[in-house]
Amino acid sequence: MRTVLVVLFDDVQSLDVTGPLEVFTGAEKLAPGTYRIRMASLDGGPVRTSSGLTVVPDSTLADAPAPHTLLVPGGPGARGPDPRLTDWLREHGPRAERLVSVCTGAIVLAQAGLLDGRRATTHWAYCAELARDHPAVTVEPDPIYVRDGPVSTSAGVTSGIDLALALVEEDLGRHAALTIARHLVVFLRRPGNQAQFSAQLAAQTACREPLRELQQWITEHPDDDLGVDSLAARARLSPRHFARAFRAETGMTPGRYVDRVRLEHARRLLEDTADGIEEISRASGYGTPEAMRRAFLKSLGTAPAEYRRRFRPATPAH
C-alpha cells in the first residue's frame, strides 16, 4: 500500500487538491489496498481554499503517516507559505519516495530547497518568478509537468490530474489509468512535454480585427497554403508588414503559429480518430508522413505512430 499524503494550508487552490485526489481515490477503488490517501495541515484544523471551500484534514502534519507520495498543491497560500510548513517539508520531503507538486506548490518546494539542482515547472504565470527567486532550479515553462528523479512538478490546476494519472499508470499500469481517465472523462493523460497552452492561447490575441480573424482562419484550415505571402494577401498587407505586425501583436512569428496549429491538429486526429498517418499528414498541412514525422520528433521527441500508441485511449470494451 502506498500512502499518498496531501499537504493542506489556507488559500490552497481546491482543484489542485481534489483533482489528484480523485485520481488516486479512483485507483484505490479499482484496486483496493493500493493507496492510502490522507490529508494533513500544520495544526490539523480545517483550511479554507481560495474559492471558499472548507476542507477538513485527517490529521496534523506531525501525526501524519510517512508518505510514499507527498503532494504539495498550489494556490495563493503557496506564494507566502508558513515557515513551519517549509521547515517540515525540508525535513520530511526527502524521505518520501515521490515528491509531487501541483501549480505553485513548486514554489513551496523550492523555498524548502527541494528543487535545487532539478528541472521543474509551475503555472505559466509564475515560471519567471520561480526562476528569478530560485536560480538553483532549472525552470521549464512550457511542459504541463516535469519529472526529475523522485520529484515531479506540474503546471496549473488541471495538469495535476495529468501527473496523477501518469503516477497511477506507473504504479498500476496503463489499463488502470485508462479506466480512471474514462471515469473522470479526461484524456488518459496528456504527455508531460505537451505545452501548457494551445496555439491560440499561447499567442496573444491580435489587436487588429483582420489579424484576429486570420488567427482563427489558420486554426480552421491547417491544410491550406499558410506561407507568409498567402497569409499576408488574406490580411491585405504586404508580406513584410504582415510578418512584423503579426509578431508584434501575437508574440510569435506567423511560421511559429502555423507550426503549433498544425502540430495540435495532427495530435487531435491521432488521439481521436482511426485515420491513417498519411491521411492525417495531409489534413494537418504537412503534405507527407515524413514531414509530419520530422515535426513530431522536433517538438515532442516521438514519431506520430508512437505518439498514437501511447496517448490514444483504447476503444472501451462492450
UniProtKB/TrEMBL annotation:
<protein>
    <submittedName>
        <fullName>GlxA family transcriptional regulator</fullName>
    </submittedName>
</protein>
<dbReference type="InterPro" id="IPR018060">
    <property type="entry name" value="HTH_AraC"/>
</dbReference>
<dbReference type="InterPro" id="IPR002818">
    <property type="entry name" value="DJ-1/PfpI"/>
</dbReference>
<keyword id="KW-0804">Transcription</keyword>
<dbReference type="Pfam" id="PF12833">
    <property type="entry name" value="HTH_18"/>
</dbReference>
<dbReference type="InterPro" id="IPR009057">
    <property type="entry name" value="Homeodomain-like_sf"/>
</dbReference>
<feature type="domain" description="HTH araC/xylS-type">
    <location>
        <begin position="212"/>
        <end position="310"/>
    </location>
</feature>
<dbReference type="InterPro" id="IPR052158">
    <property type="entry name" value="INH-QAR"/>
</dbReference>
<dbReference type="Pfam" id="PF01965">
    <property type="entry name" value="DJ-1_PfpI"/>
</dbReference>
<keyword id="KW-0805">Transcription regulation</keyword>
<dbReference type="InterPro" id="IPR029062">
    <property type="entry name" value="Class_I_gatase-like"/>
</dbReference>
